[in-house]
Design goal:
two-stranded antiparallel ribbon, mainly alpha, 10 helices, single chain
C-alpha cells in the first residue's frame, strides 16, 4: 500500500506506520483525558501516566516479539536491534501486559484507583489501536491468509516486502482492517457502556474481554508468522494468549463487581 509517506535521500524516511501509531497514542491519551473528570482525576494525571504506559507498551511489544520468535533471534542476535525489528509492530499482547503492569505500579505509587483509571483509558486504547492497525495495513504487516473473497487485498510494493516480509501479488484477507473495524466497534460499545457504568473496572474489563474475543476470531484469518502453535496447530500463540486474557479479565470483572456490591447495599 503506502509504507512510506516520503524520504529525504538516505537520511530520513517518514513511515506511514510510525505516523499512525504516534497519532493513535496521542488520540488515545487525549480520549482518556476527556473521561478523566468522570472519576475526579485531573487530565494532566492521565496524560502523564498515558505517556509512561505508551512507552512501556512499545517496549513490551518488542520484547514479546523477540520471545515469540526466539528460535530466529537466538540464532541471529544482531537482528534484535535491526531496522526490521525496530520497524515491526511487535506483539500487542506483550505491549498490553507491560502497559498494564506500568499502570498498576504507577497507581500504587501515587495512591490512585487502578480500576477506575482503567475505565478511563479503555476507550482510548481501543480507538488508538484502531488507528495503529490502519498503520499496519499501510505497511503490509500482520497480513492475512490467501483468499478469493471480493474484499481481498493484494500488496505490490517491494518496499513493504523488504520491510515486513508481506507476500506480493497474492490476494489476502485484510486482517489489519478486520481488527481496525473490531476496535472501532469496541470503542463505540465502551462509550455507550460508560452511561451505565455501575462499578469501577467494568469498562476496563469489558474492553479486555471484547478484544480477546475479537483477536481470537481474527487469528483464524492471519497468515503472517506469529510464534508457535498449540494443540497440533489448531491454535496460534496469540489465540492462547487471548483465551488467558479473557479468563483473567472475566475474573477481574467478577471481583470488582463483588467489591462494589456491599457498597451498593449500604
Amino acid at each position: 500500500m503506502f509504507p512510506r509517506l516520503f524520504s529525504v535521500g538516505d537520511v530520513f524516511t517518514l513511515h506511514t506506520y510510525g505516523l499512525m501509531v504516534a497519532l493513535g497514542l496521542l488520540i488515545g491519551i487525549y480520549t482518556a483525558g476527556r473521561f478523566a473528570p468522570r472519576i475526579g482525576v485531573e487530565p494532566e494525571t492521565v496524560w502523564n501516566l498515558g505517556i509512561y504506559m505508551a512507552l512501556a507498551g512499545l517496549v513490551g511489544a518488542k520484547l514479546a516479539l523477540v520471545f515469540s520468535e526466539w528460535g530466529y533471534y537466538s540464532s541471529n542476535p544482531r537482528e534484535i536491534f535491526s531496522a526490521a525489528t525496530l520497524h515491526a509492530g511487535g506483539v500487542w499482547h506483550g505491549g498490553l501486559l507491560l502497559a498494564i503492569a506500568t499502570g498498576a505500579w504507577y497507581t500504587w505509587r501515587h495512591q490512585l484507583a487502578f480500576a477506575a483509571l482503567g475505565d478511563v483509558y479503555a476507550p482510548g486504547i481501543a480507538l488508538g489501536h484502531a488507528l495503529g492497525r490502519l498503520g499496519c495495513f499501510s505497511a503490509g504487516c500482520c497480513w492475512g491468509k490467501p483468499t478469493d473473497v471480493p474484499w481481498a487485498v493484494t500488496f505490490t510494493n517491494p518496499y513493504s516486502a523488504q520491510l515486513v516480509g508481506v507476500p506480493l501479488g497474492i490476494a489476502l484477507h485484510p486482517t489489519q482492517l478486520y481488527e481496525a473495524a473490531a476496535e472501532a466497534v469496541i470503542f463505540a460499545l465502551l462509550v455507550l457502556l460508560w452511561r451505565r457504568r455501575s462499578f469501577s473496572g467494568q469498562i476496563f474489563a469489558s474492553y479486555l474481554m471484547l478484544y480477546a474475543v475479537a483477536r481470537f476470531l481474527i487469528e483464524f484469518f492471519r497468515g503472517d508468522p506469529r510464534g508457535g502453535t498449540f494443540f497440533d496447530g489448531a491454535l496460534s500463540l496469540p489465540q492462547v494468549a487471548s483465551v488467558a486474557l479473557l479468563v483473567v479479565a472475566g475474573l477481574f470483572w467478577l471481583y470488582q463487581r463483588h467489591r462494589a456490591a456491599p457498597a451498593d447495599a449500604d
